[in-house]
Amino acid sequence: VAGDDQWDPTDDRLRSLGKMWQRSRSPLAPALRSAMAAVEEIGPAQAQQQRSDNFPKSDLGKALSAVSRTIRGDIGASVITVDQGDWDMHSDLGTVEWGRMQRNADDFARSVAAFFEDLGPSADRVTLVTVSEFGRRVVENNNYGLDHGWGNVMFLFGAGVKGGYRGTWAGLGDSHDADLTVTTDYRSVLSEVVRTRTTVSTATVFPQFSPERVGAMTGV
Q1: For residue 27, is it within any domain?
Q2: Which of 111, 130, 133, 153 has the most beta carbons within 10 angstroms of its beta carbon?
């Protein structure tokens, strides 16, 4: 819970939230109580010592450090999501040497590297997948940035991942409205991860969807 005991050691908002929702009959109450119980269960795992000293002091670095400790705590977590913002670069994108994109990419790379270093032997059972809700166009706008686009990229790291590039590069010349052409449905990639790394049916996760073979995971 963001802010709990972060600045004031007498600030016990977790306890306050629990008391507030303990006897509530709201439709939200069961989910809230379940979430509060999960926070308590994760506590000992979060209290573990961080192994890697290479995590950036960024939000992403701190989040992946917490995820690593949760995984190493072996409390039964199977899927964990992390959000990293500030990629919506309509202005001041920069170059490969400086700018917002360079800073974000550097933070991302160092955070992921530290994450797998921190996991240690537990890395053998972890698959990390990145996906964005939208891409960028390929022509610079008037603010030295890139506007929203269709085509995007996904990165896969860790257990079960085949190395190399997967997909079809359609080039830049015939793109519509300065967009990258979409050639692979992201659900096809995620379907391979679900099929090889979980016991869940892909039809349950993506109903009425027929995935194409991407070949991003071993055994597919």
Answers
A1: yes
A2: 111
Residue 212 lies in a domain: no
Q: Does one domain contain both 37 and 129? A: no
Task: Domain of residue 101: give its range.
Answer: 53-205
SS3 199: coil
Please say if the pLDDT value at position 7 is more than 60: no
d(CA 50, CA 118): 7
Whether residue 35 contacts residue 47, with contact meaning beta carbons closer than 8 Å, is answered with no
**What DSSP designation does 142 have?**
T
| Helix, strand, coil percent content, the chain, rounded in steps of 5 | 40, 5, 55
> How confident is the model over 195-214, as pLDDT tens digits?
999 999 999 999 999 999 99
Residue 5 has pLDDT above 60, yes or no: no
Structurally, how many domains does the chain consist of?
Answer: 2
- Examine the domain organization and report whether 95 and 190 are in the same domain: yes
Q: What is the pTM of this model?
A: 0.86
Taking residue 146's Cβ as centre, other Cβ atoms within 10 Å add up to 20
In this structure, the answer to whether residues 22 and 115 fall within a common structural domain is no
Q: Name beta bridge partners: 148.
A: 136
State the Cα–Cα distance between residues 16 and 37, nearest whole angstrom.
14
d(C-alpha 41, C-alpha 34), whole Å: 10
